[in-house]
């Protein structure tokens, strides 16, 4: 949580400094005296102005408000439903037909306890009646004469449902009991043999991750992908809008292209950060309220790391989206330029799922965790799963931050050269040619 | 104060959009910028704001190169317009005013002032796209004026306006010029330009063809007379006088073109001898004629 607050504070501080450094002088007005001018008489810096406009125009739309509420409801459901679900464990209904010892009944209950499924046992007079009840779904399993079991639907080898596991367990236990009985072991001994005290296990290192960590990593991954794609598209569409309706000509007569771009990126970035922070805060608060294991132990740390990586991912990708937005001026051309940018995003997203399922990171994932386009997806997952150390996260973060600077310069060049070229789609090759002239100032 | 275009040159592939274009726009008067479609007017105006990368030449303000600080003191109305369709008018104008370096307070005051002046104060909270085209045009003009610029550069400010709108804009341009600002605008409506401009330039194929004070331009060229003599139908009295050509006769009025050496007073005497003279009038060239001759 602290890391998230630090990140937020850093962004706000950065904007303040920027505003201070770049605030331009009032035209024709006396320069600022030693006294602080009144707030209303203040001259705002251009980057601040542009960022404010972006924030206001995004947040004031109905689409944004409704979209945020829907996302929050989805997150709330994702946190609360598993908890409720856990509290209402289904009851296993078992029918017994014919000869059934006390031992068998005890075994049926014990197997249920292992899976945290309470079991109710009903005696049926005939196998036919039990079969009918099984067919109708009133019972889950029939034990006949303590010697064979009947289920409605057969199980596949990989079935991990409670019923499959329960049936498997009962089948083994009753089999062992039958074997012991045949071997002449007295019934009183069999009871003790069937419930031995398990041996203690000690480990050299604690478990790599808990199921809560895994869940956090999964949610962070999905959130990162959805938000990066959404905010990237906002930036892209924002640039295309200004180019297509020529507002950019009015704007560029007063501010430089780079400042216009930076203002947009900061404005939309602030909205993104605020929205993501709200989502995470709501998720954590709800989790604490309903007692989800999302907030138990070390689980909140991956949440914050995920949030920091969302910021880093935005910082990296936002320039790319804004830069290529300047190449087109019609909405229908957007898809063709957006696709190449979405590919690495999608790749990082999908490849991270392979990391979620693995006990140790693959070489591919280890490499991708350090490459800026994929690191925002892979690194938080590896961290949540306990497969990388703190310092590795920091190193990868620094690499992404450094390449973000390069990306910003590249995007600034593309934007400055392409934003005023109208009439047709500008080719990337044309603007990157050395002799292509940038805009004055 | 003046805006100078000095040797502007810009080529787009095979097309020479600006071909060594030079002229000066003095402040304190309404200055018309004319030329046929594709002559390079818009390119030249965009060059003032650094929106065109010139192959050669420069635009100067008060004799110095124009940077961002200078541009913030200019107002620009682009040909294809350019505001956010979905943004509230009030917010939009305040935003543009502040972008040009004005304070929050100034921006609010100026927005109120200009929306009232243009007769649309009640539309302040509306989105731009909800306005009629004429009113959108008014907002666009307000966006150019909002920060009290030293120089106005307006690309076709009258296009799409009704006669009332034209009168409003004309009055505003004249008022801006009276206050000592530079006012450069392009237009195809030559009658309008004739009414409101003191000076014009005409360019064709990126090159300057005519520049000067409108009054002088209209006096230039051959002298032309309109004469009406009672009873005369076809200007027979003027026929055969050396240096005088009858260009047209209509409803008893003859239009005569005089060569340089012709004495107009002697001509008047000849006309009086033919009958009572009802009209004897030197006629100016219309701007449309100057234009057509220039870009022929």
Description:
- The complex is a heterodimer of chains A (441) and B (296).
- Chain A is mainly alpha-helical and 441 residues long.
- Chain A folds into two domains: 2-21 and 45-83 and 209-432, no CATH class; 90-194, D-Maltodextrin-Binding Protein, domain 2 (3-Layer(aba) Sandwich), CATH 3.40.190.10.
- Chain A contains 16 helices and four strands.
- Chain A has a four-stranded mixed beta sheet with strand order 2-1-3-4, sandwiched between helices.
- In chain A, α11 packs antiparallel against α14.
- The longest helix of chain A is centred in the middle third of the chain and has 34 residues, at 211-244.
- The two termini of chain A are 42 Å apart.
- Helix content of chain B is 33%, strand content 30%.
- In chain B, the strands form three sheets. Chain B has a six-stranded mixed beta sheet with strand order 6-7-8-3-9-10, with helices on both faces.
- In chain B, a hairpin with a 2-residue loop joins β9 (199-204) and β10.
- In chain B, 41% of the residues are buried.
- The model of chain B has no long low-confidence stretch (mean pLDDT 90).
Q: Span between N and C termini of chain B?
A: 33 Å
Largest sheet of chain B: 6 strands, mixed
Number of helices, where a helix is a run of at least 4 consecutive DSSP H or I residues of chain B: 10
> Which second-level CATH architecture of the largest domain in chain B applies?
3-Layer(aba) Sandwich
CATH class of the largest domain in chain B: Alpha Beta
Give the averaged pLDDT of chain A, no decimals. 81
CATH fold annotation of the largest domain in chain B: Rossmann fold
The main sheet of chain A orders its strands as 2-1-3-4
Brief descriptors of the model:
heterodimer; A: 441 residues; D-Maltodextrin-Binding Protein, domain 2; 2 domains; 16 helices; B: 296 residues; alpha/beta; Rossmann fold; 4-stranded antiparallel sheet; 10 helices; 14 strands; 30% strand
Topology diagram in text:
The complex is a heterodimer of chains A (441) and B (296).
Chain A: H1 2-22, H2 46-59, H3 62-87, E1 92-97, H4 102-114, E2 119-124, H5 127-136, E3 141-144, E4 148-150, H6 162-182, H7 187-194, H8 211-244, H9 247-252, H10 257-290, H11 300-325, H12 334-357, H13 363-368, H14 375-384, H15 390-418, H16 428-432
Parallel strand pairs in A: 1-2, 1-3
Antiparallel strand pairs in A: 3-4
Helix pairs in contact in A: 1-10, 1-11, 2-10, 3-10, 4-6, 8-10, 8-11, 8-12, 8-14, 10-11, 11-12, 11-14, 11-15, 12-14, 14-15
Chain B: E1 2-12, E2 15-26, E3 30-34, H1 41-48, E4 56-61, E5 64-65, H2 68-71, E6 74-77, H3 89-99, H4 104-117, H5 133-145, E7 151-155, H6 163-178, E8 182-186, H7 190-196, E9 199-204, E10 207-213, H8 214-219, E11 223-229, E12 244-250, E13 253-258, H9 264-274, E14 277-283, H10 287-295
